Amino acid sequence: MPYSNYNDIQSYFTVAFDVVSMAIQRRRFVTAVGSGAVAGLAGCTALGRDDAGDANGPEISGETLTLTTTTSTYHTGLLDELNAPFQDRYGVTVDTVAQGTGAALETARNGDSDVVMVHARSLEDEFIEGGYGVNRRDLMFNDFVVVGATDDPASIAGSGETTSAFEGIAESGSTFVSRGDNSGTHTKELEVWEATGVADEFGEWYTEAGQGMGEVLVQADQQGAYTLADRGTYLSMQSELDLEILVEGPIEDGPEMLMNPYGIVAVNPAVHDTVNYDLAMAYIGYVTSLEAEKIIRNYTSEGEQLFFPEAISEEPNFEQYVPEEWERNE
Amino acid sequence: MLLEPTLWPALVAEFPFEWHYVRSIIYVSLYVSLVAVTLSTLFSLPVALLVGFKEFPGKGLVTSLINTGMGFPSVVVGLVVLFGVSNQGPLGELNLVFTREAMIMSQFVLATPVVTGVSLAAVSSVEQNVRDAAFAMGGTRADVALVTIKEARYGIATAVLAGFGRAISEVGSVLIVGGNIVGPDGHSKTRTLTTAIQLEARQGQFETAMILGAVLVVLVLVVNAVVVRLGSGNGGRY
Q: What ipTM was assigned to the predicted interfaces of this complex?
């Protein structure tokens, strides 16, 4: 799916939206007219996930939580496993929309989701600094790996450093498939290129797929190309691919740069009063609980653990709540 | 990898999905597309009759607008509908984003120009003397319209089928406004056959994607057969 286009067009439309929101005073009128049209069109269902229990405080049961998340948490199957006990306990539904980090945060910015689970700290920080997100928690981590064809034309196998591996790919002009979709993995990839200094001189060997991790792995597989992948998605697809890991991430003692931490953030109800904040916080409470920790720890694919929980710690971890390098200014 | 011979035994040997999962995505596909096409037919037929038989200034423009709409890219329609139903959009308070209703809206927008355009061609080809005869026999305007529809029924059936084909085979807009959601109990909320195929393909599961593709083709065939049957069932005896 062309997420990059989606984002481009979306940011283009954001401008149009500012104009629309200037007319927000007219919104009730427009909505009244619009609701008539939709009632005719759609049979007027699904009116409000939060209109239940207005009278006597929030009744969570029966409500729907919209979670936007990355393709890696969803396609590995972890979220199905994780969400089932939560839904049972609270009698709620979790609608999981797998989009990639950039798109997931953008959807939340528009108030169309209640909680986001993503893996690009710089984008999460931007989201929080913009006032859109509150109560961020560290959730879990795994790592990125550099994968490529077994014959390894750029001879990067065993590179101790990610940057030297990337430099090797660039120097040999071997095909590299980039996600190109403003996802967490894409963000990490660009960070690495930035560190090598190659970022400004991409040649024809550098291709942008603009698609999810699975599609990019398939593309790289078919072209005998290199790519950066999160270990979870790679492991879950390993049997379909002829690609192998050429540079390991920190889980297998690779460079720390390839760390892949996941965070979870609730959408700020002060910005979007329609979001289901109570349920979002219940969900954050659940996924950072001992029970969820156990589910995450025990979740495996082909016998290998995919994610390492880090929400629960005896040591205080204040950095998780605020943007990185944030300092109290008194 | 795509054309591995193992693919074909897989088609007959084992069905790799839970049946209730497949049934629910078939249901969502059919529900969304059929409702959308029904609504767009109800909208399109009067428009086609009006444009076909009334002379008015700007008629040429309306016709070319309809024809342009037939080729409208579905992702663009998806984006426009998304911005309409998003929380910040004009319909935001209805919470329609990531629902089947939003998918119906986008498919309505996609199917309507097709149904209108093909119906317009069909009713325009009904000869004037048929209409004159109906009028001369004392028919009201509604009677004349009915006779016209009856005369053009094959063309209109084709229009409805073309609209249905456009709706059910479309992946761009339903993915954007629907979100491809399945509950952990394995029941589809907004996942259709097309978005399910895309999901399998993006994970490199080409075999299972092909199986779902076969299901989709069979489904379209069945709907076509039913519509053609209905179209010819009461044909020619008024």
A: 0.73
